Amino acid sequence: MTEVYVAGVGEIPCKPSYPQDFREMLFKAFKNCLEDSGIDVSEIDAVVASGLDFFEGVSITDSYTPDQVGGRLKFNTLVTNDSLNAFIHGYMLIKTGWFKNVLVTAYAKASNILNYGEIVLNTWDPHLIRPLLIHHFSMAALDAQAFLSRRRGEPRDLSIVAAKNIRNAQRNSAAAYGADTDIEKIESDEFVSEPLRRSHVARLCDYASVVLLSSDNRSAKAVVKGVGFAHGSHSSDLSERVFGKFAWVRPAVSQALPSSSRRVVEFVEVSEPFASTELMVLDELGVYDGDVLKGVRGGDFMFDGALPINPSGGCIGMGYPLNAAGLQRVVQAVKLLRMGRWRGCLVASVDGEVVDGGSIVVLSAG
After folding, report:
1. Cα–Cα distance measured from residue 222 to residue 333, given in angstroms and rounded to the nearest whole number
2. Which segments constitute the Thiolase C-terminal domain (predicted)?
């Protein structure tokens, strides 16, 4: 059976705003990826672009992608929702045997969006839900409170997660919001929607990343060991929503990683728009032996802990690049694996801020 390898990764650092056009951002990330992989642009067989017209303000966003990434007159396709879904599509294309080298691209130009909160609110039912939501954070706050109530947690647990990720981001040259903070500083932040404080929410950023997948192991930086994706209880009118729980995680992780192999996961990268997102995903993954909240309080998820979670800084420390968050996490995971400290990891990404759906990828060192 065809193995799939990560042959190269490229990105530009997260920033609150880039003066360049998104095409230039994507081109720079592509150049970095080509240099990392050592392959020539002529060897690229296909491009899978991640984009969301809702955020870009234009239709068919991938029509702007091929020229910047060597995809002109080659197979091109667009995958919406989170970019980890696009990564999985690229993985499946190589598995068909028809393609040898597939490029996966993602970018975010959040600084161009003037009304982000209104855009998010427009994903909900216009009659039953949207008029009741004062702010889009309120839905995430309901999720966070439901999770803490169900697991007998405290709002302070969210501050532990946020402080960990912001401090971890100090090690990451691609992070925009790393700082030397602590739990008490975060606990003094104002609430944006209780129990969520300001630092519990990942700030938006501009970002671009490119990952090259290949069936050739000569330039392998990592091996894709498994993939999984699923939808949970999401519905635009909330009629099927289960608050405080991600129903998508267990079926997705069962596809990507058999329970007998879960000890190969030595760290986890999660795209977490909110601190509560990280805890809700981790609570369902089954890769940590023990109570998740006790693990948070005991330091097991720190950079030097038993199971580091978001050692890159996550979205809270790096910046939240909207639908590019999943590919952002893949790039960080590959970079961390290449340090030689860890041999295997799991990458998980949700399909949006408060959507009960997402994807999982398992990687091992190349």
Report:
1. 9
2. 262-338
